[in-house]
Amino acid sequence: IAMNNSLPKSVHDSSQTILGFIEMKVSAKKIMADLNRTRIELITLTIVIALLAAGISYISITLLVGRPVKKMVEGMQRVAEGNFNEEIPPGKGELGFLATSFNLMQKKLSSAQTRLIESAKLASIGKLANEIANEINNPLTGIIIYVESLINRSNDEEERRDLELILSQAMQIRDNVRNIFSGNVEKKPRFTTVDIMAIVRHVVSVLGNLSNFKSIQTNISTHNDLPAILADPEMIEQAIFALFLAFSEDMPTGGLLDVNAEYIEKDKKIQIKFMDTGNAIPENEWLVLTEEKGELPTTGTSKIGLTLFVFKQIIELHRGKIAFESRKEEGKLVVVLLPA
User: Fold this and answer.
1) Can you tell me the mean pLDDT for 295-318?
2) pLDDT digits (tens, 9 = 90+) for 161-204
């Protein structure tokens, strides 16, 4: 190639295809060594990347899967041992949802176990109640039959009246025992037309035979004619019976029991005031009794407190209202309002 005026020109014939040769000598060992080194580097890099990927995967699986699964296994073991109190910490994703579901299942199992234990206790109590009911009912049936026989043979009017009183009380006990035996402990009122003051007088006549009641002066009065009320006579009688017994025990050396009744025409209600000259109601119990939904503790409560609490519940079952007044030096006042 010749240079002329800065433009290259060919010095060979245009038909000549081979212009010359260049001889180069390259070492094959060096190339192979370079290739081997590159291959080793690639293999090493691949192994390092694989190890890093495996390490990251292991850590991720351990943190995201292994630990939650381990906690769930531990939770299952606790549940199998009967421990339902410890929950598995909830997480995210499917395992978190599984942990939440497991905690919910654990709560349901705990609730089911509690109900099962309560059912077992109630079954034991029911069995005991049945046994006691049978033990009471058997001799009681004999007493009722014997008293009925005595009534049929008696010609003395006063004696017959006393025997009929014994019979009615024995039959009432029998009915209560049957309620226990059948599991019908919470009795519902059976309403019928009732002369409540006749019940009061009947209770006083029954209690009049008790030694501690003989020293108590009773005064029963009505201001006007009282209409009949709708009530369960047995429940009302039991309530008044318990109330008068509690009053009499609060007056061991004697006292006054005053019952005053009147019909309040404008309200269509009968008001009955029960007053005694016994001890005052303990202040803490009196405060609970005056509350609308007060609850007295089952332990440490005085007998009069428990009696008044039950009396209040029976009156409220009859759609009535009750008020209490505790007077330190003058005894107790219980005011009852019943719809007529």
Assistant:
1) 72
2) 788 878 887 887 777 777 655 655 456 788 999 999 999 998 88
Cα distances from 60 to residues 48, 67, 74, 104, 160, in angstroms, run: 18, 10, 21, 27, 94
Enter the tokens of residue 37.
């080194």
Cβ neighbours of residue 179 closer than 8 Å, sequence gap 6 or more: 185, 187
Residue 261 has pLDDT above 50, yes or no: yes
The arrangement of secondary structure in 189-339, i.e. its CATH architecture, is: 2-Layer Sandwich (3.30)
Delimit the domains of the chain by residue range: 189-339
Q: Span 116-143, mean pLDDT?
A: 74
Q: What is the DSSP letter of 215?
A: T
230-233 long-range contacts (CB < 8 A, ≥24 apart) are 230/191, 230/192, 230/193, 230/194, 230/318, 230/339, 231/189, 231/191, 231/192, 231/194, 231/196, 231/318, 231/338, 232/189, 232/190, 232/191, 232/192, 232/318, 233/192, 233/194, 233/199
pTM: 0.52
- Residue 221: enclosing H or E segment and its boundaries? strand 216-222
Reply yes or no on whether the pLDDT at 234 is more than 70.
yes
